[in-house]
Write a structure and sequence with these properties.
This protein is of the alpha+beta class. The chain is 47% helix and 15% strand. The protein folds into 2 domains: 2-30 and 74-175, Phytochelatin synthase, N-terminal domain (Cathepsin B, Chain A, Alpha-Beta Complex); 185-330, no CATH class. The strands form 3 sheets. Strands 1, 4, 5, 6, 7 and 8 form a 6-stranded antiparallel sheet that branches. The termini are far apart.
């Protein structure tokens, strides 16, 4: 058995709390909001699914937040690594743990029995911090649990190789050998804020699809169809959960990003002078209104409610575009 000396910290979001736990392992403690912001976590996906329910989904976090965070300090770009099969993936995982390296893993929480979930959610990030070869188990740090979670080799393999839409997995992982505090945190915050806006405007491709502010326009263009699908109520409900409840602190990660900007403005006069926090806080409020509007539609659909939510989505698109163009031009 081998388990890293781990001080497990719970958090709001799987990816940002995983980052915080890993840097804490190396003696650095940034708030989770800072980890999310430096990782450039804001994004938007709109996916139409061919085999899964709900048949259409949105997701409001950017891809590759975890490797982006560590790429800021690494000589080489950090990226998710995929493997061909479980034997290779497990051998590499154990090898990294033997070297005292915490390992980021992407999983489908449907196969993590401690969640007792009947819904596939691929892309859930955990950190593997130990293994027991005798019992054939692995130890995971997961944002929602105070204690390390024990998962069998079989279940972890299923979780890491899930082909559930919209994000098929292939034993995705990367490890971290070391981490030191950023030498110039103020500059890093400014760089990350601008990079997140650039990424959102230019678009980021991933196996999930493309994260882009302009994907919100695709959603707007097809939103009227949501009321016509057979699983309409489920589509509205899942979108509400994504925005309001699922690991985002509310507002589809705009709330945690607002809190990041509030902390960042204390470090940087430039960020403070641009008044980014109140801009993002307003965007966060609109997203929360959208979320609860979608919840109402899942229970009681009316054309009036549908139009009200659609207008809110149009409003938030305009506000987000203005914000990110403002960053691009002024930071």
């Amino acid at each position: 058995m081998r388990i890293l000396e781990w001080n497990n910290l719970t958090g709001v979001h799987c990816g940002s709390s995983a980052i915080r736990n890993v840097i804490n392992f190396f003696g650095v403690d940034y708030p989770e909001e800072i980890c999310f912001g430096i990782g450039c976590g804001l994004g938007f996906f709109y996916n139409k699914l061919s085999k899964s329910k709900p048949s259409e989904v949105i997701h409001l976090r950017a891809p590759n937040m975890e490797p982006i965070f560590f790429s800021h300090q690494s000589k080489e770009k950090v990226e998710w690594i995929s493997e061909k099969n479980n034997e290779i993936a497990e051998d590499k995982l154990i090898s990294e743990l033997k070297r005292n390296h915490p390992v980021f893993l992407q999983t489908d929480l449907y196969y993590l029995k401690y969640y007792n979930s009947n819904i596939h959610f691929p892309g859930h990030v955990v950190v593997c911090v130990g293994y027991d070869s005798g019992e054939n188990n692995f130890y995971l740090s997961d944002t929602n649990f105070n204690e390390l979670q024990i998962v069998s080799s079989k279940d972890l393999s299923l979780a890491r190789s899930s082909k559930a839409e919209p994000y098929p997995l292939s034993y995705n992982w990367f490890s971290i050998e070391s981490f030191k505090p950023f030498q110039n945190l103020k500059k890093q915050l400014e760089i990350s804020i601008k990079l997140n806006s650039q990424n959102f405007i230019n678009g980021q491709n991933s196996l999930r699809g493309t994260s882009s502010i302009f994907s919100i326009l695709d959603w707007i263009g097809n939103f009227h169809m949501w009321s016509h699908y057979k699983d309409s109520a489920n589509i509205f409900k899942f979108a509400y959960q994504i925005i309001v409840k699922r690991g985002s602190k509310g507002s589809g990660f705009r709330c945690i990003y607002s809190d990041f900007l509030k902390l960042a403005q204390n470090e940087s006069k430039k960020i403070n002078d641009l008044k980014l926090y109140p801009k993002m806080s307003n965007i966060s409020d609109i997203w929360m209104d959208i979320g609860y509007g979608l919840k109402d539609l899942s229970k009681n659909y009316t054309k009036k409610s549908m139009k009200k939510v659609l207008n809110k989505i149009k409003d938030v698109y305009i506000e987000e575009l203005d914000y990110h163009m403002f960053i691009k031009d002024n930071l």
